[in-house]
Amino acid sequence: MNPLTQTKNLQKLIENEIKLGAVGTKKSWHNQYRDSAWVFFGGMPFELTEGDIICIFSQFGEVVNINLIRDRKTGKSKGFGFACYENQLSTDLAVDNFNGTKILGRVIRVDHAGNYKPPKEHEDADEITKFLRESGCQGEFHQLEEKKDKIELKQVKIEKDKDDYRTKFDGRDRERKKSRSRSRDRDKKRDKLRERSRNREKSKDVDRKRDKEGERDRRKSRSRERDRSRSRDRHRRDRDYHRSDRY
């Protein structure tokens, strides 16, 4: 059924009860909700907060709890929810007087919520919402301001602690980066020294090899010289011998 149609039907029910003089008697249709102090509200302007709605409903009694349904992702109000009064009779007054009224140009619907069970306290609820749910709206504005100041101070301290942590973390991170950079520089220098040492060893090996090859060449040259010298000596002796035979 359309919410606006439901609102109109409820208004007719209230009007008929007034005409019949059943208001406040056992014949009243409100009696079936005597075991619940919760009311449903819908069609609320989306810009209203829990505190705003509590102040509105507090005209007919002290509101001790409220559950304004919000979008889980965006946190924005969906315009409906549930409110709980300290006194169950306040629910009758709220339903009779608020249902079908306009708030900021929107027609709201208010009805009993007999079977409603409040959800467990959400961990992500802000401190002001928790405070309003606990204390309601009784005109103690200065208490809310004090609570708000304490919450803001707490949030400032949390932000400061976060900034201090970031500063310390950034400092440690910079030190680690510097240390790693110095370590890399040392490794590079060590690698260069090792490379130079290997190059020197290679150069020495080449020189030793060249010296050995030169020594072998010199030995071969001396051997060839000795062979040529011996050959010349034999030739000279043979020549002298033949000359002596002729004479």
From TrEMBL:
Read off the SUPFAM superfamilies from this record: RNA-binding domain, RBD
InterPro entries per record = Nucleotide-bd_a/b_plait_sf (IPR012677), RBD_domain_sf (IPR035979), RNA_proc/Spliceosome_comp (IPR051847), RRM_dom (IPR000504), RRM_Ist3-like (IPR045844)
Instruction: Report one GO cellular component.
Output: precatalytic spliceosome
* The organism's taxonomic lineage, starting at the top: Eukaryota, Metazoa, Spiralia, Gnathifera, Rotifera
Extract the PANTHER family matched here.
Answer: RNA-BINDING MOTIF PROTEIN, X-LINKED 2 (PTHR45880:SF1)
Which stretches make up the RRM domain? 37-115
Q: What is this protein called?
A: RRM domain-containing protein
Alphabetized UniProt keyword annotations: RNA-binding
Biased composition range(s): Basic and acidic residues: 169-230, 238-247
Q: In which organism is this protein found?
A: Brachionus calyciflorus
GO MF annotation, one: RNA binding
Xref: Pfam families: RRM_1
Report any one BP term from Gene Ontology.
Answer: mRNA splicing, via spliceosome
Location of the region described as Disordered in the Swiss-Prot/TrEMBL record: 169-247
Keyword RNA-binding part of the UniProt annotation: yes
